[in-house]
User: What shape does this take?
Amino acid sequence: MTTVLSGSVETVSLPEEDAHLARDTSLALAGFVRDDERRLMLRLEDRESGQAVEVTVPTAALRLLVKALASLSEGHSVTLLALDADLSTQQAADLLGVSRPYFVKLLEEGRLPFRKVGAQRRVRLEALRRYVASYQQEASAALGEMSADAQRAGLYE
Assistant: This one.
């Protein structure tokens, strides 16, 4: 199943019966992805017509495909985003796993930069990535403080 959210955001998940195929394909392709290779030649053949085409693929693109297939084989959905993508508030909220109203509240509180296109808010993917990294860093620091407090209180014995 493929759901296209916009021209720059695409989320893909596989039915369970295709997960095994994705795993096998990921493992087969991974053997060809090496750091010393810049490009690889792929031969694709249509089983019905026998028509074949050979294409040269950058190793980095093949590495991305291997990772995507591995993730899909584990039952995860995969989203491919352009780094310079402008996201709607719904797309950004979906990526964060929060409601759109909550995400809009974050924008209005100034936690993330955004711009308006007409009445619509747009958020750069890079700004969203920085927000997530900052949030994770703050959460990790808070967890460290809680652990230290618990240790000082003698709760780890």
Summary: The longest strand covers residues 39-45. The beta strands are 2-6, 9-12, 39-45, 52-58, 78-81, 86-88, 115-117, 120-124.
